[in-house]
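Changelog-adjacent note: as of this version, every example in the card shows the full chain rather than a window. The one below runs 213 residues end to end.
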Amino acid sequence: MNCKKSDFLLYAVTDRAYLQSESLSSCVEKAIQGGATFIQLREKNLDYNAFVEEAKEIKAICKKYNIPFVINDNVSVAKEVDADGVHLGQDDMSVEEAREILGADKIIGVSTHNVREALTAEKNGADYLGAGAAFATGTKTDASAIDHNVLKEICESVKIPVVAIGGINKDNVINLKGKGLSGVAVVGAIFAQKDIVNSTKELKQAVLKTISE
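Full-length structure tokens:
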């Protein structure tokens, strides 16, 4: 595997919808200072050149703190900026294609919603899985929450790390205890907060209580 299990404890996914007057790179740095252990740059509406420039900025910050940095969906951007890897959805490029483009040493994650998808992703060479939605979420309106027993079944079915995603915050994360997760991925619980550093610190403490078996 191209990363450590501990890297996935608190996986932060960016969303520029929450930006006020601050830059995304500044918000990412605050998230890392607060304890985020993994960064995924998620951009749905930026043009290619703007996406690349932003990715270079975020990559530099992640490198400064030695935090893994992946691009959501866009393998071309990940390749151009030499990101640590890419995260793929079920409708994106296959793991095998992404691996061929990015190389054997890159991190490739896959979004999964059931055991079948999890086993397929692992078989095809994924390094980790994102599983969800753990709770109802406003970030992805098409993602319905899955039974937490399914999360547990996914974790038990694969040998690679599994991160729960979807509607997770410091108050509800404890409901995921005992499922076998390596960590949780969040968007609003970090980037929608007024005080990103302290909000991330509080969230990380709640995650540590949840993940410790």
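Structural remarks: The first strand starts at residue 10 and ends at 13.
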